[in-house]
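Re: the 155-residue chain
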Amino acid sequence: MKKFFSDFKAFIMKGNIIDMAVGVVIGGAFGKIVTSLVNDIITPLISILTGKVSLTELKWVINEAVMAEDGVTVVTPELALTYGNFIQNIIDFLIIAISIFIVLRVMTKAHAKLEAMKKKEEEEKKAEEPVAPAETELSVLCEIREMLKSQNENK
């Protein structure tokens, strides 16, 4: 049982899980913003074009509702295709999709620029560092020096 909980703790503490949880929370808040944009700004503008208060009111009535003689009680409910609701959901989806696409595109470009800057800094740093000869080259040079010393001593 202890192993289970230690494994679970390690799983939860992984960076990807925490990043994903933050993404879900931010996504929920972002969804509210997009829903407000659609409901409070875009839908009223579309309603002006359609002459309806809301897109969700658009429907094709197949059979009218049958009312009782008292005019209040519904004997048979209305049978209708509420295509306005469907259109509203399509608009919501498209706006959410394009918003997420734009945010991800901006983040990807920013990340690529940041990586390019880091790479450029590393290359500049490497260019500034003096290049040390490889160990094998150094050992060969030391042998040559020793040979020259021994030749000078023999003269």
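Helices lie at 2-12, 15-50, 83-128, 135-154.
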